[in-house]
Amino acid sequence: MKAIATLGEISFLVGEGLRSISEGGQQNFAQHRRLEGKPTLQQVGGQLDTINLDLQLHPFLTENPTERLQELKDIMDAAKPQSLVINEQFKGLWVIDSIDHRPSQIDVNTGAEIIECKIKLLEYVGVIVVVNEPTADRTVFRQPAQGPVG
Questions:
Q1: Which secondary-structure segment (H or E) carries 71?
Q2: If pLDDT is split at 50, 70 and 90, which confidence band does 150 have?
Q3: 114 near 59, Cβ under 8 Å?
Q4: Are 55 and 71 in contact (CB under 8 A)?
Q5: Number of domains forming the structure of the chain
Q6: Residue 5 pLDDT
Q7: Could you tell me if residue 16 is inside a domain?
Q8: pLDDT digit string (tens) for 45-89?
Q9: What is the pLDDT of residues 122-147, one digit of tens each?
């Protein structure tokens, strides 16, 4: 099956329970009060973009929903940027900010559970240092800031 999205080493296949993907961004503004009239606004920069993944981890679609959930938690706990590809388009580097999950059903015969899962990703803008083990050389990758500079 074709992957609709990959986050690092984890692939989400077509029909595997990826229900929706939503993207968002936000700007920060400072308010300047005036003696008369309404305050004025000044843009002071943007916040990190977010992507929300809504998943259903189902035993018929994912080999083991509990293991898949644990893989996602391990990535979040490692706090390392992961490459994100959606529909064959590279979206940049992202970290898992939060995972909310709950069992939605449990099969009485097999004990397998269906897990509803919401994952919030934060855009990663920063420096990545990779240490090459045999020589201990350091390679530095800089994630370029997007948008206007200044």
A1: helix 65-78
A2: very low
A3: yes
A4: no
A5: 1
A6: 83
A7: yes
A8: 888 999 999 988 887 777 788 888 999 999 999 999 999 998 888
A9: 999 887 666 656 555 555 555 555 55
Listed in order, strand segments (DSSP E) in the chain are: 3-7, 10-13, 18-24, 27-32, 40-46, 50-57, 82-86, 89-106, 113-123, 127-132, 137-142
Three-point CA angle 124, 8, 46, nearest 5°: 15
Q: Any idea what the CATH number is for the domain that residue 14 is in?
A: 2.40.30
Residue 3: phi, psi to the nearest 5? -80, 130
Instruction: Indicate whether 15 belongs to any domain.
Output: yes
- Asked whether the beta carbons of 117 and 100 are under 8 A apart, the reply is yes
Residue 19 amino acid letter: R
17 located within any domain:
yes
Number of residues in the chain: 150
CA angle, 133 then 67 then 128, to 5°: 30
The two structure tokens encoding residue 33 = 């009060």
Tokens at 59, concatenated: 């035993």
Q: How far is CA 88 from the centre of its chain?
A: 16
